[in-house]
Write a structure and sequence with these properties.
Blueprint (H helix, E strand, L loop, with lengths): L5 H10 L3 E5 L3 H14 L3 E6 H7 L2 H15 L5 E8 L2 H10 L3 E4 L6 H17 L3 E6 L3 E4 L2 E3 L9 H11 L3 E4 L4 E2 L10 H11 L3 E3 L7 H9 L2 E6 L1 H17 L6 H23 L6
Parallel strand pairs: 1-2, 1-11, 2-3, 3-4, 4-5, 5-8, 6-9, 10-11
Antiparallel strand pairs: 6-7
Helix pairs in contact: 2-4, 2-11, 5-6, 6-7, 7-8, 10-11
The chain binds glyceraldehyde-3-phosphate and zinc ion (ZN).
Length: about 290
């Protein structure tokens, strides 16, 4: 069924695992993610950025696509459709009205008071509709959807500010930027685990780890043990997909039917998602 993230993340936090947010880029991602979740009996969050939604034809198209696939597949596991890095109250409201079951309001580039004010507005609307909300403080480094954040070090979230934001807004989960990066890491990631522990103690809500691509398993496990109950992955699925497309096209230079390269690459996305579900411990938890 389609659900918000609230119950799935609270359960994950209590039981010591994380639910993956896997980003959708087109139809094949929705298929691969839903197939993986059902096979693994895992709850799943389908992340949709504003750019990805636009690419697909808008929020309504995304919701209709996921809903009809769930019907066609007979999906039994909990699925959340989540707006990833929502850029404004208006975008969050549009997603909610289109049927998204969860939204992230990312006002992390704003001063703290504005971030809190916008997040609070989104929570008021979302909760009326049974929709869950994620907020962010500090900046996740790297590049995603044209948002470039240069110096992740300077952007570590401050625990006391995190406590205030969560308390004043009533968000369901919270992403403190603690050194994670969108896209591949340059060298080993340097996550602020001491701060993560502090933020977990101060806020009490499930934490979210962005930039899940390229984080070593030991760091994933440590983050989960410190209250990270949602981990976002996009780039790794994209890399698996494109590598397969390249291989298939290189081996078959005369090939032109898109199903012949998108099909096998969809299976690679699915394999990647299954691997993450096992790593995060969400398999068999639905
Ligand atoms: O919000 C999306 C994620 O944080 C994805 O990060 O592309 O590095 O896996 P990633
Ligand atoms: Zn992110």
């Amino acid at each position: 069924p389609l659900v918000s993230m609230k119950d799935m993340l609270n359960k994950a936090k209590d039981e010591g695992y994380a639910v993956g947010q896997f980003n959708l880029n087109n139809l094949e991602y929705a298929q691969a993610i839903l197939q993986a979740a059902e096979e693994e009996k895992s709850p799943v969050i389908i992340g949709v950025s504003e750019g990805a939604a636009k690419y697909c034809g808008g929020f309504n198209v995304v919701v209709a696509m996921i809903k009809s696939l769930m019907e066609a597949y007979g999906t039994t596991v909990p699925v959340a459709i989540h707006l990833d890095h929502g850029s404004s109250f208006a975008k969050c409201a549009q997603a909610i009205h289109a049927g998204f079951t969860s939204v992230m309001i990312d006002a992390s580039a704003e001063p703290l008071d504005d971030n809190i004010a916008w997040t609070k507005k989104v929570v008021e609307l979302a909760h009326l509709h049974g929709v869950s909300v994620e907020a962010e403080l500090g900046r996740v480094g790297g590049q995603e959807d044209g948002i470039i954040v240069e110096d992740a070090e300077a952007a570590y979230a401050i625990p006391s500010e995190c406590e205030r934001l969560v308390r004043e807004t009533g968000v369901d989960c919270f992403a403190p930027a603690l050194g994670s990066v969108h896209g591949p890491y340059k060298g080993e990631p340097n996550l602020g685990f001491d701060r993560m522990e502090e933020v977990q103690k101060l806020t009490g809500v499930p934490l979210v780890l962005h930039g899940g691509t390229g984080i070593p398993t030991k760091d994933i496990q440590r983050a989960i043990s410190l209250g990270s109950a949602k981990i976002n992955v996009n780039t790794e699925s994209q890399m698996a997909q494109v590598q397969t497309v390249r291989e298939v096209l290189a081996e078959n230079p005369d090939l032109y039917d898109p199903r012949k390269y998108l099909g096998p690459s969809r299976d690679k996305i699915k394999e990647t998602v299954i691997g993450k579900m096992r790593e995060f411990g969400s398999s068999q938890k639905a």
